[in-house]
TrEMBL record:
Protein name: Cytolethal distending toxin subunit A
Main localization category: membrane
Transmembrane segments: none
Organism from which the protein derives: Helicobacter cinaedi
Compartments reported by the entry: Cell outer membrane
Length: 275
């Protein structure tokens, strides 16, 4: 009799309390938009950013189509050689993108309605090494990279972002070209349809004493990193963007600054000046 009572107690304890401790959380960085909620790589793109193709003149590309809703979508990859009304808004004195449509929200029922209109200004997010967070491949699910402004002259709004603020001091970061949002994925960042319920699209800004800040992802509890080797020697290269443990000491490669929106940048010098 005692054994039966003890067994019943153990089973009851496991059902009452064990479930809370063993429950598998949603590890899918797309918040269930694609794949099973336990799948940590639902897009099957691996854990590390795949370097962009080498281009004599960096230009936007479509990239691999990994999200079904992009299958029949037409993408504009043209190089921007001048400021247009599309970029700055008709009759606007300031470089502000017009809001022609709400943020891109996936057609899946798991997605929330468009983000509330608590928006910041259009900005550039730049590391101390000169790498600006940039969309290179326009299709959803492609990796985010760091390009210097001179090496991404024709990218326009692909390197321009705005912060979407929430009452708990978290932000989502929306791209000016694609209207998609930064999305933590494995060891890096991709861009996906904005989804207010996706904690992998939520970030916290941790202020630093030098006016910079760390970008801490809520889903992974890690910070955005742009590795810095030689600040001058690495100037003309594409920088990989990673997620890593937030550093409290030496963290130059995790610092980010806000700069004005660079819809078009004219180079101050020619690369062949010494030739």
């Amino acid at each position: 009799m005692k054994n039966r009572i003890y067994a019943a107690f153990v089973v009851g304890y496991i059902l009452a309390f064990g479930g809370c401790g063993t429950k598998i959380s949603d590890v899918n960085p797309t918040a269930g938009l694609i794949g099973h909620y336990k799948d940590s790589d639902p897009l099957k793109i691996g854990s590390k950013p795949t370097p962009p193709a080498k281009q004599s003149t960096p230009a936007l590309v479509v990239g691999p189509i990994v999200v079904p809703e992009d299958q029949n979508k037409r993408f504009n990859t043209r190089v921007r050689t001048q400021i247009t009304e599309e970029m700055v808004g008709k009759g606007s004195r300031n470089a502000v993108l017009p809001i022609k449509h709400p943020p891109l929200v996936g057609s899946s029922g798991v997605n929330a309605p468009p983000i509330p209109p608590q928006n910041g200004d259009w900005i550039v997010l730049m590391s101390p090494g000169g790498a600006a967070l940039t969309v290179w491949a326009l299709a959803q699910g492609n990796w985010i990279w760091g390009y210097t402004l001179i090496d991404s002259i024709g990218f326009g709004g692909a390197r321009v972002w705005r912060l979407r603020f929430f009452d708990n001091d978290e932000v989502m970061i929306e791209n000016g070209e694609t209207r998609t949002c930064l999305n933590a994925y494995k060891n890096g960042l991709i861009h996906m349809a904005c989804n207010t319920k996706n904690r992998y699209q939520r970030f916290k800004l941790i202020p630093m004493s030098n006016e910079s800040f760390q970008l801490k992802n809520v889903g992974f509890d890690q910070c955005v990193q742009a590795p810095i080797g030689d600040i001058f020697g690495d100037f003309h290269r594409v920088t990989s963007i990673f997620l890593t443990k937030c550093a409290t000491g030496s963290n130059l490669d995790q610092q980010w600054y806000v700069a004005p929106p660079t819809f078009l940048v004219r180079p101050l010098y020619r690369r062949d000046i010494d030739k």
